[in-house]
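The freezer alarm interrupted the setup, so I double-checked each line after restarting. Inputs confirmed:
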Amino acid sequence: MFDKVALIGIGLIGSSLSHVMRREGLAKTISISSRSQETLARAQALGLGNEFTLDAGEAVQDADLVIVCTPVGVCEQVAKTIAPSLKAGAIVTDVGSVKASVVSQMLPNLPDNVHLVPGHPIAGTEYSGPDSGFASLFENRWCILTPETSTDRDAISKLKTFWEKCGSQVEIMTATHHDLVLAITSHLPHLIAYNIVGTASDLETDTRSEVIKFSASGFRDFTRIAASDPTMWRDVFLHNKEAVLEILGRFSEDLSTLQRAIRKGDGEYLFDLFSKTRDIRRSIIEIGQDVESPNFGRHEAED
Amino acid sequence: MFDKVALIGIGLIGSSLSHVMRREGLAKTISISSRSQETLARAQALGLGNEFTLDAGEAVQDADLVIVCTPVGVCEQVAKTIAPSLKAGAIVTDVGSVKASVVSQMLPNLPDNVHLVPGHPIAGTEYSGPDSGFASLFENRWCILTPETSTDRDAISKLKTFWEKCGSQVEIMTATHHDLVLAITSHLPHLIAYNIVGTASDLETDTRSEVIKFSASGFRDFTRIAASDPTMWRDVFLHNKEAVLEILGRFSEDLSTLQRAIRKGDGEYLFDLFSKTRDIRRSIIEIGQDVESPNFGRHEAED
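Predicted 3D structure, all chains:
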């Protein structure tokens, strides 16, 4: 599909893209760059690409598709580094969890003769690094593209086909809308999980070890999300500040109401809330975005 | 191990106990009672017991072990109902997620010649009802017993052995301490999950359907917990009010600090918090309280 694809950054998403591109034959040459010598050596040992370099500018030379797979906080620097080496007509995309900031960091720094089509595959695990990737990560998942209205239709179409070949369904929306929706579905849940695990982490040693011991009563679910990559998530919150604070405000209001209901012993309010939340779970299972098995199928994983 | 065990209530925990007692040969006769004719008929169709009755008093006649598997809000009523029919020397226990309230609801209403040993198996799924049980639910999980200091040692010891034969490890602590630890590990996570899914549920229709669609970015984890039984959880919050409000207070303080760090763009604070939470996840996996597989092993469940 492409003669040469450059992956700038080779963590969970970058390495998964490498695996699926190999499996589907989407790139003749995969060129990989990383800022870290250690990560790059690991990617090379795993055979994730054909070319390996610490210099992102070198990696993008002659590439038809450049996929920036770094934390969103370094997108501006990446754009500046690769700009002089980009091939005319190249498609430049990314996989960041925030989109408006990526546009404002990258667009002004790229030459006019390349096509910036920001993207976000709604897929991931709590693991990070080049060892954590696998070819099926994007299967049955959504990938959101947020091109500007002036962006070349063919470039958008080609990137859409690329993600479909990776197993995803593609949705196109504005960067601002993406950032609001993801603030609810992703950024707030991560924030809350980090916060609740942080609260537990601050407990006295004895209590903390009991929390770990009895975590199967609910807490352990939160620790999975709170084990996600710290650098990536720091950058998400720094770069989607307004939408996150807006959604956090709603969450806090609702929590105060719930707190008052508990204090007052308002069983009817609690029952009504706890009933309506079941419907959302059912919808998610129906559209195939989660497994129906109890406890996410943990038992199957243990066997 | 017992001639006759009575299960008062036959939801997820009751039916799982039935399965594991059968598998391990722990009871010659299993007597089941439910307040609902429909549930009782379903339990009978599933062959979960030997005797079935709508009258809890009838179910406990001649039982050596009585396990109350109802929502904690009806424990007092159950104690009053079964008290006149209990055999002298019977062990009476329960499986509720709150313990101090269970003691104060049941102890004054039971005859002096039976042994109340409250219990709480730290095990469950998001499903409820007699169809949802399975024999391995308690395997490698903890079961906490919270007897009074004056409780008969033999009764405690016998119940401990029972739970060990069900696959659990047993820990003994005071009811008050149990309620504080579970407020952190279980009640707060459920409260937060219900709240965040409730916030999403209140969004305008278009946004809500997008939240469901893109739920794989984190939100879907919360919906599993928020799909738990509404009656059971209403009762938990009504009956562990003080500990829940205390822990919720700490959580809210921490969340305010985190909110301010985002507003101020304090990346160092965010990075430090997001790093230390990873350690807790690692500890939970090390002690075997969760699976190591990415995304809880959802991929294995799908295959």
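Quick read of the result. Chain B touches chain A through 109 residues (CB under 8 Å).
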